[in-house]
# Entry
Amino acid sequence: MQAQHHTDLQQLLLGPMANYVYVLGDPATRKAALVDPAWDLGQVLDRLEAADYEVEKILITHYHPDHLGGELMGEKIEGTAQLLAHVKAKVYVNRAEVPWVKRVAGLSDSDLVAVESGDETTVGNLKIKFIHTPGHTPGSQCFLVERQLISGDTLFIGSCGRVDLPGSDPEQMYYSLNQKLRSLDEDTIVYPGHAYAPEASSTIGKEKRTNPYMRFDSLDQFLRAMGYSRR
# Structure
């Protein structure tokens, strides 16, 4: 049976890197969380105003500037730091990501709430669970709310995030995909961090059947496919 969702999940496609920014809203209380706000903050704020939502929390999947704001290849990307001038909210990041987030976005300790895998928070009546999924970055995390998973750059539709960047780890990516995320209910809807596929969403069940990065029988096979060998 398909789960009944009480979350108002809104997906905004923003920026030249096809980023998805998410609004997680509780229609009953008009409270909301923003996920990975970057690029066109005016459009994000307009969406919130149109829906009459008050932002309580900002959730960050990982520290890369296209998801957080900061400088990327000489370009200044507006993001979380600029958003805090408009909303009174704390920024939730995985504990392993804290130093990276502070350096990239210029945020301070007082702006941040460091979380661990399995922690939960609430937005209005919504309960959001943090799942630490290292691999793309040390503190990459996904957000699970009512069998809806915002997967950042860990799990894409038919693919996964890069593991050849500073802080990446292909071995950790294997376990994040093939243990943590693979164990979720198959009808969990997957909302990725980028529009890299024709579809805007998928399910864990479909990804288990069709995503090659979730179908390797062993870590060694996964590493060989990624061009690595076990350390």
